[in-house]
Structure prediction request, 327 residues.
Amino acid sequence: MIHGDTMSAHGSESGHKQTKIYKIVGAVLFAATVATVAAAEWHHLGIALGIFVAVFIATFKGSLVAGYFMHLFAERKMIYWVLALTAFFFVAMMALILWTRGDQQGQPHGIFTAPQETTQPHRD
Amino acid sequence: MSAAIEIPYVSTERPDTGLYNARLGVWLFLASEVMLFGALFSTYVLLRTGSETWPSGAQVLNIPLATLNTFVLIGSSVTMVMSWAALQMKNFARFRLFLGLTLLCGLIFLVAKGFEYHEHIAHGELPGSSTFFAIYFVMTGLHGLHVIGGLIVNGYLWGPGAKMWQTDPARFTNRIEVAGLYWHFVDLVWIFLFPTLYLLPGK
Prediction:
């Protein structure tokens, strides 16, 4: 240890409290990972609900990582503005994708299936 | 005669933003990374919804290995933030221990990923084999490159870069904080990649 001996009692106490929070968040993340795998193994959910549950748990885990480990729950206002702008463009990008998909409804074999060659009636 | 120009706000916060340079810089970089991975996730959505059939991860991917990797990467995020907290408490030995554990976890992740890739290649499952494997290799490969990048930075800060702790401890603590922000982002991306690629049901 190079600078370790001059630590104040208050700083040490606050630091220990902080590390305890990190350990608890880590434990919750591990538990949520087990829940994600268990939910995926439970086939009764079906496709739509299965996707919803997986994305919901991932969002919950992501919020914990961003909020506690990346200190986003107590960040400066400017960072929130940067992230709000990013979120806006991210949502716009996803919306464009879904819009594209919506435009292709009614094609039972998927939008990337090459269209079958059509033969024009032959004129004499 | 040489005059050294001192760059302001490398360890102190700017009065107007309340942020030091590197912290704002890394957050802006992470914003661009959100768009990069966001583009790939939206590509995945478009390819999946637009395809007639799509395999479930359980059929073609190694779920136990990927689950292990998820635990390893989450563990590495915990040790990364603990290493920063150790510097806050001015405990350099504890910092070295936790950052060392972070490096170890990152290496374990890459080795497990290597085994997984080897398994696919041995079975002839390559990016050109199917749309699923194309997007799988692109997304996990790009994520793997980010892990390698993080390991290089963390390795430098654990080794030769740690000398700064003796000359400018506040700036070094800030460096660990921003390296941590990047590392947690890499973990965050995996948190979404894991269920998306490995756990979603097929159709």
Chain B touches chain A through 57 residues (CB under 8 Å). Chain B has a mean pLDDT of 93.
